Every structure is written in C-alpha cells, then in structure tokens.
Amino acid sequence: MERMKNMKYVLIVVAIIIAIGSLLTSNFLISDLKAEEQTRMEVWAEAMRSLNSSDENTDLNLVLKVINGNNTIPVIVEDKDGSITAFRNIMRKFDANEDSIAYLQKLADKYEEDGRVIRIDIPQELANDEYINIYYDESTMLRRLAIYPYVQLCVVLGFVLVAIFALFSSMRAEQNKVWVGLSKETAHQLGTPISSLMAWCEVLKEMYPDDELLPEMEKDVKRLERIADRFSKIGSIPEPKPEDISEVLNRVVVYMDKRTSSKVKIATHFPDEPIIVNLISSLFEWVAENLCKNAVDAMDGSGNIDLYLMEDEESVIVEVKDTGKGMTKSHYTSVFKPGFTTKARGWGLGLSLAKRIVEEYHKGRIFVKESEINVGTTFRIELPKNM
Predict the structure, then answer these.
(1) pLDDT tens digits for 76-114?
(2) Cα dihedral sign for 59, 64, 65, 67?
(3) In this structure, are residues 134 and 88 in contact, taking their beta carbons and an 8 Å threshold?
(4) Are the CB atoms for 359 and 366 separated by under 8 Å?
(5) 67 and 40 Cβ atoms separated by less than 8 Å
(6) Euclidean distance between CA atoms 192 and 79, whole angstroms
(7) Residue 31: what pLDDT?
C-alpha cells in the first residue's frame, strides 16, 4: 500500500518535471525562432528598400528572390499616407462584398501595437514616397510552437491521471482479493465447528428434551450458520430477491435487544405497509447489525437507537440514529476506510464491508448524514427501488 502511494507521488513529480522542462525548452525555441523571424523581416525590408530605390541598372533577381521567398510570415506594406500598397501571407479569403482594405488596416494597427513594424526611408530623388511601413506578424509555425507545450502539458496530465487511476484500481483490486480471501477462509473454517455444534444440539435435545436453554443454544448455532453464509457470499455475486425490508430490520432489532444492555433502548419508526426491495437479506441484515453495534459502542452501552424506514419516488431510505459520542466532519468519509477505528479492540473493517455490501451488491449508498460531538450520529442508507 505504501509503495503504491509513493509511486503516485513519483508520477506527479515526474509529470511536473516534464511539464517544466517542456515549457522551458519551448520558450527557448520560441525566442530563437522570433529572433530568426525578426532577422528575416529586416532582410525582407532591405529587399523592399532596394526594390523601391531601384533604377534601370539595378539587378532585381536577388531582390525579388528574397521578397518572393517569404511564404510564412504575414506582411502588410503601407505608404506614408497610410494606404495599403501590398500584403502577403494573410491567411484569409475575402468575399466580393467585403472591405479587404479595412480588414488589412485593422491588422496593421494590431501589428503596430505589438511592436512588429519596420520603417524604411526611401530617398526622395528615387521615389515619390519618403518612407514605407512594413507590418508583420508571427508565422503560423511560431504560433503553433507557442501552443505546443500546453498541448503537451495536457497530454502529460492525462497520462498521469490515467496512471494514478490505474494504480488506485490495482490497489482496490488487491484489497478486494484480500477481503474476499479472508471472508471465504473464515466461512470455511467456521463450517466444521458449526456442523459439529448442530449435531451436538440434536444429541442434547434427545437427552434433555425439556431443557429450556437448548432452544436458545439452537438459535445461536443457526446464527453462526447465517454468519458463515454471509462470509461465504463476499466476493461472489448472489442474486438479490424481493424482500420486505421492514421484516429484515425487525430481525436485527430482536437480535440486538437480546444481546445489549437494558440501558440501550432501540426504537423503530417504520410505515405500516410493507416496503419491498430487492435485497440479499443475509448481507443487508449484517449491515444493519453492524450499524447498531457501532451505535451501542459509541454510547458506551447506554442511550437510544432509532431506526427509521421511509421511501421517496426513487429510493428506500434507512437511517440509524444514536445518542453516542459523535464525530467530526473530517471523519465522515474516513470511517468507511479499512482499518479506521476509534475502539481499543477491533480491526476497523465493519463499516468498510458495510459500504461494499450496500454499494456493490445493492447499488445503493451509505454515508454519515449528520453527527455532533457528544450528541450523536445518524447513518443513512439509500437503496434504489428498481435494482
């Protein structure tokens, strides 16, 4: 378990290192590419100066090669009067009714606000204009490169989340195997002595047919048999059957009444009409018993336990309310974790198994509805009506 937790932290640290390394590397590449594009635009601007300053003796082959070689960087050329004289690599197709000049002017203003403008002075004796302005933008490659690290970051984050989910799934599967193996082995070990006790009960009934203690002993043996049956069903997929949940809970109340102090008062608040729910009765009975036993322990053997049964349009609701020690909100979820216990004795598996039985076998949910220190706790179970 500890190894799995450490692996989770290792994955997170590795993801952070990859993300930081990717961002730093991309920033260096972007800075280099920006500097290179700045240099290319300065060369392109010089080519435009040569073109505008040329005469009949100027060789324009190299100038035109430089100008036509720019196929990636968006460029807009504007004269001193603010009129667009040329543009290149503007990634937009203009409609017949669209004012392309106005659009290009907005782009030029935006490029100027970003500081991407080069002014070229032209000798007056060689040209009508005294200067031209060249506005340029980042190339498509540069913009994609700027987005790339964030895309990579999302991919790394997704990988880490999947890896962590896989780790937790593996941990949970490993825990399930432990609980299932422990439960089935317990049921197996209980089987032989229970069979022996059942045989001895039959012998004692023949020898002492009028003994008043034998029926109670027989009830306890049957009780052990039901407990073994519950443990044997953990890990298998028993089929839920329609049951009157009121009867199931009443059996729990009768059992708890005989085995708790007279200072513990258990009251039921059930509707008069039966409520039929698909249940694995032996397992759900164990859940209710576990909640009641925890309530008795929380009250130190003195107090009140109230069982409520109600229903709405979608759910059947069971609440177990005690007048015990209560708990803080930070323990609302941790009480269902394996090994969590506030008692000096016990393994802390009861509520963990109860949660599994309710959620996995009955498709419901169990949670702490409310709790207050030195006032009491209310556990709530919600079961779907149509499972």
Answers:
(1) 888 777 788 788 888 766 655 666 788 888 888 888 888
(2) positive
(3) no
(4) yes
(5) no
(6) 102
(7) 82
